[in-house]
Specification:
This protein has 101 residues and is of the alpha+beta class. The protein contains one helix and five strands, in the order βββββα. The chain has one helix spanning 77-100, and strands spanning 7-11, 17-26, 31-38, 43-55, 58-72. The chain has a five-stranded antiparallel β-sheet with strand order 1-2-3-4-5.
């Protein structure tokens, strides 16, 4: 993390660098949003939000919603949606595994 935790630098499994900036955090609403500043992805204006929701009638589980907005740049919308759908799926699967124990 850099800048007090508001900017972070990640590397994906291929070694590509991704730089993200936290743009909104709300502990009470259990959500945060971030923008991608640098990445190998064929998009501009990327903004993503993660939200954690209670599941009515269930005290033992929650639902995580991960969504993003972007403008395709050098790829079709379908290609970019497929790319981020895979990234979100992998991230949510990893989150599930981390808390399943």
């Amino acid at each position: 993390m850099q800048e007090g935790g508001r900017v972070r630098r990640l590397e994906n499994p291929d070694g590509d660098v991704i730089v993200e900036r936290l743009v909104h955090f709300d502990d009470v609403e259990r959500q945060y949003s971030y923008a991608i500043l640098e990445a190998p992805f064929p998009v501009t204006g990327y903004l993503s939000t993660l939200r954690v929701h209670a599941v009515p009638g269930r005290d033992d589980i929650t639902e995580v919603q991960w969504s993003g907005r972007f403008v395709p740049d050098g790829a079709t919308e379908e290609e970019v949606v497929e790319l981020f759908t895979g990234i979100y799926r992998d991230g949510l699967d990893a989150l599930h595994q981390a808390f399943a124990a």
